Amino acid sequence: xxxxxxxxxxxxxxxxxASVRAADARPWNVIIMLVDDWGWRDAHCFGSDLYExxxxxxxxAEGEKFTSGYAACTVCSPTRxxxxxxxxxxRTHVTDWIPGHMHPKDKMAVPDWTQYLDLKYTTIAEAxxxxxxxxxxxxKWHLTPRSDDPKVIEPxxxxxxxxxxxxxxxxxxxxxxxxxxxxxxxxxxxVIGRTANFPEDIPNGQYLTDMLCDHVAGLIDRWKDEPxxxxxxxxxxHAPVQGRPDLVxxxxxxxxxxxxxxxxxxxxxxxxxxxxxxxxxxALKRNGLEDRTIIIxxxxxxxxxxxxxxxxxNSPLRAGKGSAYEGGVRVPTIIYWPGVTRPGSVxxxxxxxxxxxxxxxxxxxxxxxxxxxxxxxxxxxxxxxSKLDRDAIYWHYPHYHPGGASPxxxxxxxxxxxxxxxxxxxxxxxxxxxxxxxxxxxxxKMPEKAKELTDMLHRWQKSVGAQFATMKxx
Length: 474
Known about the structure:
The chain is α/β, with parallel strands linked by helices. The protein has 15 helices and 16 strands. The protein has helices at residues 2-15, 18-25, 54-62, 76-85, 89-92, 124-129, 150-153, 192-196, 208-222, 245-251, 264-286, 326-329, 356-363, 378-382, 447-464; strands spanning 29-35, 64-66, 69-70, 108-109, 134-139, 165-167, 228-233, 293-299, 333-336, 345-347, 351-352, 393-397, 408-413, 416-421, 426-431, 470-471. An eight-stranded mixed beta sheet has the order 6-5-7-1-8-9-2-10. Strands 12-13-14-15 form a four-stranded antiparallel beta sheet, with helices on one face. A two-stranded parallel ribbon has the order 3-11. Strand 13 (408-413) and strand 14 (416-421) form a beta hairpin. The longest helix has 23 residues, at 264-286.
């Protein structure tokens, strides 16, 4: 009887189209696309009344959209370190953008934090390469020591952190311009390829977003027959708010009084990223890889709302980049895993940057051999209505930022969020299910709940060895 069943199973497999059998045998490819300064409403499928993002919308329609996607920090470098290590920024001590803001008049002194990604960590790229994957970093890195000396910064570039190829990953937090040459400061054209890891054949004036996505597509063409892991970290939509001219002109007549979003330059930046996603997916399709490639699309912090009256608007979330509130850390997130994620599914479970490390390894059938703080998202990718096995997610930012942050820490435990501020010591408590805009502080009305979450936050801070800002002596 057993032999008969096995024979029937084998016959069924043999009767499958050869293309199906081949697809099932191929390993998964993985693309993580991290968009810089991407606000929670900065896509049509996340509620924008202006930004046209048909390719992001299509990805959401084919995959799973997360309404409670979070960045590990309210600014970029800590989130990027968390993406690479699967560890909370408080644990690695990479807790601010590099080099951070220095204001002598601040009441508190920031701790002696780490201003680079230490080579001692096993990055997700190193983990993937150890499992036979080609690895490439394309775009923004911003995890090197602050220095003008190439000898100081080069050892911390992506090619020394597990990536076979590094295109444009360097010390910059942003370009000076989106048109080549993109260099800034004292970097001059003769050494741009060496100090900034840009290809040597970029045409003068080429738009940065287009250049990067062309190289992503080129790597897909090159590695089509072998598994690859691409970490595509766009410089857009970070300042300078400089959209491609044809897209800016497209948006100008679309802006009407009373619209939430009304900046044509910023809208063009967003749509430029959307078109880049389209080029990447087109490369997958022409190489027959669309059914074997996982795409994770997310952001590094909330949308910028303070520069020139704010390029974008994160409402109904409170504030934006550099803030302790939801607008500073909640970001659009979409995951497409062909044949696994349910088309058009929506998940409300909170997910955060550190989760992608163990999730990607789990997706390819591997496990992390180093400790991580993130958890695998497989349960909610297979069933968006399920819950993850954890009590809370956390933030710790012992710094100042023009976006409004003074030293703070925060915890989200299911619907509850508590923020502890240190300069003027107090806590604020919000129920996000009822008050996503964090308008009604319940700490005074619910002291027991506030204490419960404060105690939870303090235990976590101790467990990760968090550093704290300290009051300056008068």
